[in-house]
Amino acid sequence: MAEGKLFYVIGPSGSGKDSLLRYAREHLASDPGVVFAHRYITRPVELHGENHVALTEAEFDARLAAGLFAMHWASHGLRYGIGREINLWLAKGCNVVMNGSRAYLEEARRRYPGLVAVLVTVAPEILEHRLRARGRETDEHIARRLERARQFARPSGCVEIIENDGELAAAGEHLVGLLNAGRKRAAA
């Protein structure tokens, strides 16, 4: 059985990664060969945000000490982890899709050399509108996120680009197409 592919989706906060992942998840729900990894985050669950597993700092520390994370990082005062279950899914030939961190990409590539990086881009004015509309950050936090997005250089190596400036369905179908193409490659 061929090893599955890891699709590592990145982009600035507000680029629409959660919406794209939700779109792809809904459209691939009946495909047992594509699995969407939950992130473990030290942030309470939000009704309209990412479908993640909320952990306290103590819970996160305990899982980290037990070696239960395949990957973990800190960003914007929060801690994020991806469970080791992804290794089982990959070994079973499933393609795994995850919401990653731009800053952690090189370490993720070191751990998973066959990783497919997927960068979600969005125009600066749309990014600012989305950040303000979600109402999660202060003006100061939004300004920092916008500055960080401006300074972010496209990662080196092979990166698939999804422009998410327009209708969700267009960018969503692009992501679904990448995952389907990856599925066909993994099965070959």
The overall number of domains is 1
Specify Rg, calculated over alpha carbons: 16 Å
Query: What is CATH's topology name?
Result: Rossmann fold
Task: Examine the secondary-structure arrangement and name the CATH architecture.
Answer: 3-Layer(aba) Sandwich
Beta-strand share of residues: 15-25%
Largest sheet: number of strands, sense, barrel closure: 5 strands, parallel
Number of strands: 9
Quick one: overall form?
A: globular
Note the gap between the termini.
10 Å
Which structural class best describes the helix and strand composition? Answer: alpha/beta
- Give the CATH level 1 class: Alpha Beta
Number of helices: 7
Strand order of the largest sheet: 2-7-1-8-9
Proportion in helices? 40-55%
CATH superfamily: P-loop containing nucleotide triphosphate hydrolases
Q: pLDDT below 50 for ≥5 consecutive residues: which ranges? A: none
Give the overall average pLDDT: 89
What is the helix/strand order? EHEEEHEEHEHEHHEH
In short:
The chain has 188 residues and is of the alpha/beta class. Helices cover 41% and strands 22% of the residues. The longest helix has 20 residues.
Description:
The protein is α/β, with parallel strands linked by helices and 188 residues long. It has one domain (6-187): 3-Layer(aba) Sandwich (Rossmann fold). It has helices at residues 17-27, 57-65, 85-91, 105-111, 124-134, 139-151, 168-187, and strands spanning 6-10, 34-36, 39-41, 53-54, 69-75, 78-83, 95-99, 116-121, 159-163. The strands form 2 sheets. Strands 2-7-1-8-9 form a 5-stranded parallel beta sheet, with helices on both faces. It has a 4-stranded mixed beta sheet with strand order 4-3-6-5. The longest helix has 20 residues, at 168-187. 32% of the residues are buried.
